[in-house]
Amino acid sequence: MKPRIALASLAIASLAFAAPATASTPEDTYLAALSRHGITGDPPALIDAGHDACWALGQPWAAVGMALLKSEAEYAAQGLSGAQEKQARHDAVNALCPDKATWRD
Predict the structure, then answer these.
(1) Where are the domains of the chain?
(2) Would the pTM count as exceeding 0.85?
(3) Alpha-carbon span 48 to 33, nearest angstrom
């Protein structure tokens, strides 16, 4: 009986020192948020569009509108409606570039 207790104790102790689960990437967080909002499409293309939206929001004031057109076109190519595109951009800001949160609509 004692060997089983020792073995169980060893197993529990090894769990305490196990490496923590790998944190999800911002891209994983972004795709999960899109999924929660019912937005689907090609994951690499959606990620590119999200990064382009973040990039656009980092441009000088006069260039932001033109820069956002690229990400809007990428979202439209995935079949997203205007409302879905807006939600995807919000999800991109939240997950991929939270430092640009002041730009949210």
Answers:
(1) 25-103
(2) no
(3) 15
